[in-house]
Amino acid sequence: MSVFIIRRLMQAMLVVLVMSFLVFAGVYVVGDPTQILVADDADQAERARVIAELGLDQPFHMQYLQFLGGALSGNLGESFRFNEPALQLILERLPATLELAFVALAIAVFFGIPLGTWAGLRPESPVAKTIMTGSILGFSLPTFWVGIMMILLFAVILGWLPSTGRSDEITYVLGFPTTLFSLDGWAHILLPAVNLALFKLSLVIRLSRAGAREVVHQDYIKFARAKGLSESRVILVHVMKNILIPVVTVLGLEFGGLVAFSVVTETVFAWPGIGKLLIESISFLDRPVIVAYLMIIVLIFVFLNLVVDIAYSILDPRVRLQDMKS
Amino acid sequence: MTALQDDPTLPNRAPAAAASADSGVETPFRRFVSDYRESSVAVVGTVAVALIALIALLGPLIAPTDPYDLATVSIMDSRLAPGEAMMDGRAAWLGTDGLGRDMLSAMIYGLRISLGVGIGSGAIAMLIGCSLGLAAAYYGGRVDTLIMRVVDIQLSFPAILVALILLAVLGKGIDKIIVALVAVQWAYYARTIRGSALVERRKEYVEAAASLGLGDRRVLFRHLLPNCLAPIIVVGTVQTAHAISLEATLSFLGLGLPQTEPSLGLLISNGFEYIMSGSYWISTFPGIALLVTIVSINLVGDRLRDVLNPRLQR
């Protein structure tokens, strides 16, 4: 087991290293930050001074090593726009994004698993067909357009919910700022969270449906029924438990996807998270913030992949054994 | 072939020729068509896809106005509700946008751009992905490990993130967005074709072709590739729908197409400015057009997957 974890850790570190190189090469070498940083009327000496200050006169590998050294000590550069450390800017906005992604994930799981299991147990019923048609729609609907339509319906026409923004009523839970403890917080988060959840909800429905259809024909389900267990116990314990393996993967991997996809939802609903910061930074060519965002997202992804791999190997020992053999 | 030769009663004919020439006999293609038609939803989807393609192709001929002709577009017509009359007396059936362009015409032109970008990037991605995937499967060893590692790493990140990274670096423009969409899609093709090529490679016909002394390229493209096409067609339809949706999303975020080439996504984005003041039609109608396009393509893709999947064959 520990050999497995160590191997996976080393793989993860390698991926982070490779990605840091690609992100650095992409963002820092392709463009020329002096064009934005140095005033147009600056003379040659002034240009040279700024270039030397930013370390841009160094050869590429030296610049990369400096960036890497800075990154290891938590310094990802300073934002051109705010003159604040890029990392700090992102960490300030991360809780809002995590809150949104967490609520969206909860919606996807709490509605997705029961609906998908239902559709899998009675695949020919009209309810199941409606659920599945709905999930095709969920896959096809462009997230941003659904968001706009939700604002139009619930905020503009019906006037039930606020159209944009996050609530100001922030409570600190274990140092984590959240708006989920106030009614106003829920009123603000409901539309963006549902919007962000739609795609994952369809995915969870499909996964649990496929899982349920496969599991109900297994011998242990027949045996559980033969033992005279009640139908609800068979479904809730024996079927549900075995659907959970693919869903655990989804829980882990798709959470990263939610954080990445929140870029769209945050832009539509003006949600003050890291996705909105990224889009603003791209339009302002604020490179340090772009690099910092990408590195943090890569770290989140690699970490989640690692956790899911380990959780998987505990839930299903065959994964571990197969990896050992190869 | 003449009709005489086609007569099934004639003796001395190769059995293979009889099967392919005889009109009543089930060929793989006919079986595919009849299987496909069993789902009426899929047929509706196919008809819709054909109609949408036709509208896009005939665009300038059927659009009521030319939305980019500055001589005819008047700012006085801006934000007319659906059905209201424009300055020149014609009715704007779906309303007009903030610049006074007829929405229906703008949507038809936008559809051309959306479809063009989606299909164009899909075709390039398919070419690159299939070549690399085939190479990985055929050569194996280090080539395979290298290509598939890159594929694995890329697929562990969501498409939108990869596209965002690229566009952040590259900037705006129709060529840049095609590059981004190709980069996002190629890995799916590579992984799919590698999977089926690995199965096909072990079959005798590949061995036979290789032992005839045919070159690598010929064996790869003339023998292996045609036998791996079915899953690629499925991935192709689903990915095209995905690319159209992604392009719309990126354009909405302001990272995709420039204002001079408004795709459906950009039209929706432009309408978002006016949504609070109740001009619902500017965002709603292009969105519906986008939705119908994506759903129709997905319906076709779903059906193709069911029919072409050998595991599900009854």
Largest interface: A-B, 42 and 39 residues
Taken together, the total number of domains of chain A comes to: 2
Q: How many alpha or pi helices of chain B?
A: 13
Measured distance between first and last alpha carbons of chain B: 34 Å
Using only CA atoms, what is the Rg of chain A?
24 Å
Anisotropy-based shape of chain A: globular
Walk me through this protein's architecture.
Chain A has a two-stranded antiparallel ribbon. Chain A has helices at residues 2-30, 34-37, 44-53, 60-72, 86-121, 126-140, 143-157, 183-215, 219-226, 231-269, 274-283, 287-315, 317-325; strands at residues 171-173, 176-178. Chain A has two domains: 2-72, no CATH class; 93-325, MetI-like (MetI-like fold). Chain A is 77% helix and 2% strand. Chain A is mainly alpha-helical. Chain A is built from 13 helices and two strands, in the order H-H-H-H-H-H-H-E-E-H-H-H-H-H-H. Chain B is built from 13 helices and no strands. With 314 residues, chain B is mainly alpha-helical. Chain B is 69% helix and 0% strand. The two termini of chain B are 34 Å apart. Chain B has a domain at 119-309: MetI-like (MetI-like fold, Orthogonal Bundle). At the A-B interface, helix 1, helix 6, helix 7, helix 10 and helix 11 of A face helix 7, helix 11, helix 12 and helix 13 of B.
Question: Which keywords apply here?
Answer:
heterodimer; A: 326 residues; mainly alpha; MetI-like fold; two-stranded antiparallel sheet; 13 helices; 77% helix; globular; B: 314 residues; elongated; disordered N terminus
Describe the protein's topology.
The complex is a heterodimer of chains A (326) and B (314).
Chain A: H1 2-30, H2 34-37, H3 44-53, H4 60-72, H5 86-121, H6 126-140, H7 143-157, E1 171-173, E2 176-178, H8 183-215, H9 219-226, H10 231-269, H11 274-283, H12 287-315, H13 317-325
Antiparallel strand pairs in A: 1-2
Chain B: H1 3-6, H2 15-21, H3 28-37, H4 40-62, H5 103-139, H6 141-155, H7 159-170, H8 174-201, H9 204-211, H10 216-227, H11 229-252, H12 264-272, H13 281-308
Helix pairs in contact in B: 4-5, 4-13, 5-6, 5-8, 5-11, 5-12, 5-13, 6-8, 7-8, 8-11, 9-10, 11-12, 11-13, 12-13
